[in-house]
Amino acid sequence: MRDILTFLDRFYKCSMRDECRIYRNMYRNRYRKELLIAKQKANCDYIKGASNKMKAMWNVINSKRPKTSKARLNSNLAANDLKDFFANIPVALINKLPPASHEC
Which superkingdom, per the lineage (predicted)? Predict the structure, then answer.
């Protein structure tokens, strides 16, 4: 199935005809659906064949999750530093404003 899709893709790129593009896209969608079904079946077979089904389920779930870094950023900021920074923003903005004229 993959070989046929590769052939159709190359054929479309050579010919650039609309009917080739439509056929290639239809076949690509079918290929993707079949691939999804095959992956789901493989996951089901893996879980059914496992002696510890709960662990097997979590292995499948974790294999689909993005990998996250466990490294933590070292920061010397304290809660009071953040509070002071954000509390002083309005004062700094007001000081940057030009003096208001009260003439009407």
Answer: Eukaryota
In the numeric block, the tokens 């662990």 are attached to 55
The pLDDT tens digits of the residues spanning 42-96 come to 999 999 999 999 999 999 999 988 887 666 666 677 888 888 888 888 888 888 8
Give me the amino acid identity at 21: R
Type of residue found at 72: R
Measured distance CA(13)–CA(52) in Å, rounded? 48
Q: Which residue's entry shows tokens 């070989």?
A: 3
Tell me the C-alpha distance between 30 and 27, whole Å.
5
> CA of 36: how far to CAs of 8, 13, 68, 99, in Å?
20, 26, 25, 66
Q: Please write the tens of the pLDDT for every residue from 19-28.
A: 888 888 899 9
